[in-house]
Write a structure and sequence with these properties.
The protein contains 23 helices and 26 strands. With 718 residues, the protein is of the alpha/beta class. The longest helix is centred in the C-terminal third of the chain and has 29 residues.
Length: 718
Amino acid sequence: MAERSFTKEIALLELGEGSVFRGEGILAVTKALLQSGVCYLGGYQGAPVSHLMDVMADAKELLEKLGVHFQACASEASAAAMLGASVNYPIRGAVTWKSTVGTNVASDALANLASAGVKGGSVIIVGEDYGEGASIMQERSHAFAMKSQVWLLDPRPNLPKIVETVEKAFELSEASSTPVMVELRIRACHVTGEFVAKDNMAPTLSRNNPIAEPNFDFGNIVLPPSTYAQEKKKVDVRMPAAIEFVKEQGLNEVFDGNLKDIGIITQGGMYNAVMRSLAEIGLADSYGNSDVPIYVMNVTYPVINDEIATFCAGKRAVLVVEEGQPDYIEQAVNVALRKADLNTIVIGKDVLPMAGEYTLEVVVTGVTKFIEGSLPRGIDVKRISEAVHALLAPKKKAVELLGGPVPPRPPGFCVGCPERPVFSALKLAQRDVGDVHISSDIGCHTFSTLPPFNMGNTVLGYGLGLASSTGIAPQMGRRVVSIMGDGGFWHNGLSSGISNAVFNKDDSVLIVMKNGYSAATGHQRLPSSGANAKGEALEGTIEEALKGVGVKWVRKLRSYGVAKMAETLKEALTTDEDGLKVIIADGECMLERQRRIKPLNRKKLAAGKRVVRTRFAIDDDVCTGDHSCVRLSGCPSLTVKPNPNSLKSDPVAHVDNTCLGCGLCGEVAHAAVLCPSFFRTETVQNPKSWDRAMHALRQRVISWLQVDRNTVNGRAAA
């Protein structure tokens, strides 16, 4: 089960020639793939293109009807390797992953693919999110594209243009025998709009029309002497073919304007930000008409020197809007102009920042500086400066009123997250055994590096938590702890970390967070989920995999049992037994659990069946104000409120209405200080006769106790 279901929107993918498609970008991309006659699809989830995998999984019936094979891959490397099908056969394939971290994992297979070249169109849909907070690092795909000579497309965030770009990507790939990357920024993924659909195209060769005989060509094998010929072909044949195709098909765009002495060169993905900035200063309207001529690079690599020279001819200055560093495109524009012997001044990172997201504020400030510096003829620069000042004034006023910037809001665990109690237990264990070095991993558990836990000395890659501990472990006075989710475990943790630790007889502790899903990327299924993306049952378990590679010391515990988890952690850290010790913290992701349970409960209520909702609360009279529950769990449903007792000054802990009844707050407080203030309540809907009888009995006992206490207090007063 994924974070979001697209079952209702799947009908849009069956629209035929002339029908109007209305929806969001991620669906439009899928439709473009089907219109292109794609034969196979695969990938690994990651923001901002996670939902592309979800759409493909939900559209399995349509894919099967067309003969399209879909595979949810174990990693980005697995996905990239799928494109090997197009090396020897004229079949089209597309894969998807998150950039740049996904491209890093896929780089081995992708570099070999780029060297060998392809017969069938090969397209990689990468989720480009530079500066947008969905990646743990800020890098661009551009460097890889140039390094391996993979063509890079960055479509203007407009549904017709996105669809056209995906379709043309296959044609470009086949025309130049080279894989093509299409980078989709988060706004392109989720932009809504419409385009005129075409009929879906069944692949000529597929499971419905199998390949008769295999083909072998040593020229496609990445081994000497073939590699020398492949490299020469890149330069002499593939690159010129790609450039010619881009020019002939008009993949890049020019939008003319009346300010002929200046211009803007922008990546396709930044076009909307540029237009909005120009509109804010009165140099463009809402219909896409700009006073400043704009050259839109929907193809950012290769750079088409002829087009740049033609656009810049007769202009005193151009602004290059290129998000991120290094300034690859700006450098390429300068080279193109020098080769064309043009003296057009190129402005870029001198008025725009080298690093960081190009928000509206950033772009409009840079565009204004460019206008003020270039002084184009026929424009009132003073009016533009005043417009920018008026645009930015509210933010400056807000900062003045607040007395400073708003504190950053870091991410954190969800309410009821099964990983939070594990870190609470680890905190308690360290209280007894001392602080330990913790190698964290990518996933929800990365939030443990933030308050209130502040655990995780390093984060170096998905599934690499254990591997990253091997260098420091021998130098530490006590055993180190590594963290890994079940997503990271199946991605490459089993091979890169666990097998390596067993082989080298490392003496350390590994915690595997088994929540049943790849939770951080949208709750995609894993080999340990019990079923695959198609809903087919699976039998593989993490315990069996661990035993299969030779791990002897394995403990599987319920995540929410803080005391037991702390005890087991202390055992793992202090035992005389050598070798890798693995603790599997088993607890279903609470978000996914709620998505699964709530519809079932609604059906039960509608049918008049009994439903019980569990909540936790705090007795104000008993709470001492210690707040260990808050310090050791950090649950968002826990807060503080003024003490109702006028004789006590310390605020008391309070559980708000977001509580899901996981019980961690009480469990961790009890494990820490034997706190008696927590109590559990159960709300029973559609109660049965037994529930009513027990409620009546409890009320009578409570009334009797209250009367007895009042009697005793009365005697004492007398």
